[in-house]
Design brief:
Thrombin, subunit H, 3 domains, alpha+beta, six-stranded antiparallel β-barrel
């Protein structure tokens, strides 16, 4: 038996050798080598190095924006970051944290030309900023943006930037995941994850598809040491396109309002609604005279797609809405009573109702040093909240004041001495008397602080 097994193995090996010999060997250098060089030559001139001068301190986080350079808060620093030229008139996109608090911004092109840059717009919710340089009559090289919804996990990508101030460093990898949350680095929470090696200084650099178009702006890495471990995050090009369009005209990105409140589908909710799996958002409330009421939303409708793009959670909905413009009408698919229904929803700007009545609280009471406003859909949108509730929100806290000991930005002041707080005027009346307790709403939880 062993003899016949050996003989069979030799026969298999001989057959494999025959097949290998039948396959032609590479006949020239072109068929032997595979290179990204042509793509890099076309794209790399659009990626720039950004230097800033600032005295503002910077805080390091476990999820680390790719910021390089000195970190001495006591002296002016020259952090290093990257950017990408997206318009021939000198419009450059980068990360907001690269230029935040900068006194001066200087851009160095791939061909070593240097320009002073002006900040056009920055949106810290999405950690994006636009700069402009004046290159005179010369047309600058630009990169075309690609629809980030067209990429898939496993696609090959290149990351181009200036890590640690090293000019024009190119690394390759694949798309590791889509719609990935990155622990609150910005409001998007809808990142492209890649294993292409990226390090401090890559902030604002390009994540490029194999067709040479931009699919993302490198924004953060997951790291315990500060170096790359193969988990990087890029802000998708679809939100970059919205920032570029708005910044070119001047203005601010406003996320449209649906006029409904929503909740993520949990396994228990899915079972109760008879859904096959826990995906989508269930409508909890439809606000009167809002876009949702006009479109025909009903309580317990389950939103599963917007413009045929799947919606799995609040982060996905926030991102999808941020890529759309007020005034558009979009199809939204919902599951209602076991059937799929498509609603045509007109997108509106979030209203500021009630008026915010911004007030700084002072005096001998626990909220001394807090700035509060009446919550409205407009305020919720500015704060990056998925939904809103009526009441009073904390939007600013003066350093070193008593309020900073127990309240945070975004907290809701729900009650004073057990009595509900309806608006800012009501809050002012209640703190004029001795305060024994304050109820605070934070991330869906309510806590009550007692005072003597």
């Amino acid at each position: 038996m062993r003899f016949w097994a050996i003989l069979a193995g030799l026969a298999t090996a001989a057959a494999a050798m025959t097949v290998a010999q039948a396959q032609p060997l590479p006949s020239d250098r072109t068929s032997l080598a595979f290179s990204y060089a042509p793509l890099v030559k076309r794209v790399s001139p659009t990626v720039v190095n950004i230097y800033t001068t600032t005295t503002a301190p910077r805080v390091q986080r476990r999820l680390i924006p790719f910021l390089g350079g000195p970190q001495d808060a006591q002296r002016p620093s020259n952090p290093l970051g990257s950017g990408v030229i997206v318009r021939p008139d000198g419009l450059i996109v980068t990360n907001a944290h690269v230029v935040k608090g900068a006194d001066e911004i200087r851009v160095v092109l791939a061909d070593r030309r240097e320009f002073d840059a002006k900040l056009v717009i920055q949106d810290e919710r999405y950690d994006l900023a636009l700069l402009r340089i004046d290159a005179g009559t010369e047309q600058l090289p630009i990169i075309e943006l690609r629809d980030s919804d067209s990429i898939e996990v496993g696609d090959v990508v290149l990351a181009i930037g200036n890590p640690f101030g090293l000019n024009q460093t190119v690394t390759s990898g694949i798309i590791s995941a889509l719609a990935r949350s990155a622990g609150g680095v910005n409001d998007s929470s809808f990142f492209i994850q890649t294993d292409a090696a990226i390090n401090p200084g890559n902030s604002g650099g390009a994540l490029v598809a194999m067709d040479g178009r931009l699919i993302g702006i490198n924004t953060a890495i997951y790291s315990q040491s500060g170096g790359s471990i193969g988990i990087g995050f890029a802000t998708p090009s679809n939100i970059v396109a919205r920032i570029v369009a708005i910044g070119a005209k001047g203005g601010r990105l406003v996320r449209p309002w649906l006029g409904i409140s929503m909740q993520r589908i949990t396994p228990d909710i899915a079972t109760g609604l008879g859904l096959a799996r826990p995906a989508g958002l269930v409508v909890k409330e439809v606000f009167a005279d809002g876009p949702g009421e006009f479109a025909g939303f009903r309580r317990n409708d389950v939103i599963v797609a917007l413009r045929d793009l799947p919606i799995d959670d609040e982060a996905g909905m926030r991102f999808r809405l941020a890529t759309l413009s007020v005034g558009e009408t979009v199809p939204v698919k919902v599951i209602r009573g076991g059937r799929e229904v498509t609603l045509q929803v007109p997108l509106a700007a979030p209203p500021e109702v009630p008026l915010r009545d911004r007030s700084v609280l002072d005096g001998r009471q626990p909220l001394n040093g807090a700035t509060v406003v009446n919550m409205s859909p407009a305020v919720a949108e500015e704060m990056g909240l998925a939904e809103w509730r009526t009441g009073v929100a904390v939007v600013e806290i003066q350093p070193g004041t008593y309020a900073g000991r127990f309240v945070r930005l975004g907290d809701m002041v729900l009650a004073i001495n057990g009595q509900e707080v309806k608006d800012v005027a009501d809050l002012k009346r209640r703190i004029a008397s001795p305060v024994t307790s304050i109820s605070i709403g934070r991330e869906g939880m309510v806590s009550t602080v007692q005072f003597r």
